[in-house]
Amino acid sequence: EIGVRLVGSEMCIRDRDYAMIIDEYRNGLLVYDVMKNNIWQVAKKDSIGLKQYYAATKGNYMWKERVDIDIISSTNEISAKKAQELLNEGMEMTKIKELLNIDGKVNVIITSGIYELDQNELPEGIEIKEGVSEIYKRDNSSVVVNVKEVIPPSIKEFVNVRGIVLSNYQIEIEKRWMKTLRDKYKVEINKKSLKKIKKEFDH
Fold this sequence. Notes:
Blueprint: H1 2-45, H2 47-57, E1 62-63, E2 66-74, H3 77-88, H4 93-100, E3 109-116, E4 131-132, E5 136-138, E6 141-151, E7 154-155, H5 158-184, H6 191-202
Antiparallel strand pairs: 1-7, 2-3, 2-6, 4-6, 5-6
Helix pairs in contact: 1-5, 2-5
């Protein structure tokens, strides 16, 4: 008889735990549907509102100071110095590459692009000014940089930040929606039920 009571008690506990899990799962699905229909899909479909939100907040999406550069790196310092000389003479990158990478040997690697000043592509301690830099050491390479343009801080175009703007717009819609609910409905907390739930979680 004691054994039956114990088994019955365990089954009740298991059933209660299972019911709680199902209830949490159901509530999670409901919350997901509510968020999808009232926030996520609204933001995705509202292309005009999204662009208006970007226009109103675009000061939050800024490029830092940047440089448009060519980076020439070589494990051979002689090749780096030769590249530096050719840059100072005004030779184009393609010609420098053809001249220094000969007989199937890659003596220099050239990387071109626009970078913010704190990006790892730039050698540490580089002087930010237009023109050909001195030769910097980085790991086992010698690096010379041709700074074509120093670009001041500027606002990022919508196409470059659409993803983060959409995410922030969804947060903004959620805030507006929550405010509407708070204004429309009075929230009352059943302290007795809250105390009971807290007690169950503590155990």
